[in-house]
Fold this sequence. Notes:
The chain is an alpha+beta fold. 23% of the residues lie in helices and 33% in strands. α1 runs antiparallel to α2.
Amino acid sequence: xxxxxxxxxxxMKAQQTNIDVTANNIANVSTMGFKRARAEFEDLLxxxxxxxxxxxxxxxxxxxGVQIGLGTKTAAVxxxxxxxxxxxxxxxxxxxxxxxGFFPVQMANGQIGYTRDGAFKKGPDGRIEDRNGNxxxxxxxxxxxxxxxxxxxxxKVQVIFANNFTPQNVGQIQIVNxxxxxxxKSVGGxxxxxxxxxxxxxxxxxxxxxxxxxxxxxxETSNVNIVDEMVNMITEQRAxxxxxxxxxxADQMMQATNALR
Length: 261
């Protein structure tokens, strides 16, 4: 009975983690470039009362044994990097990666972060930045007197001046991919940084070597499906309640034991 108490407690803790992950997914349903997460679980050690294959006679063995599980624990919280839907904005510096890849930006601490959120702005010095002032890498500056801006699917940044309608190149956008994007570390602000699990960043031109192409005037929305998350939340809530019922049942059984004369 005491085992049942602790086992059910691990189940309640696991479902609490599940709810926390689902809540974060729902909270970011409108966050550009957000990737939904999924909690994964594994069972704990077993109390082997009788090992499978234990001899039960001269020429016979136990076919199954007696193994009693001791609960569950969170094994991982995995990011789902499937493509989100496209949102047309017609913004000159709104960029969507159609396919694999991340935009590299330099964070305030000097480290390079990676994002799927292509909602860029022109900074006070003309450099292309994200909404938090992180500068797109490699750096490029949009002239103050430019009257138009074009970004090609392969990342060429071209400006048009009022007295010259021939586009002039001012830079080349590079995007980055990883062997295992799910191994990236989330640091907030729609940014990821590499880890030992993600592998090293592999930079290249959009549209080449398996990298996605760029789409100007569009943004990638969150890949969270609100209906799926609501269904998951209901399932997780019921699982939490069921584990709590096990705790109550174990408590009642101990009360009955204590009442024995």
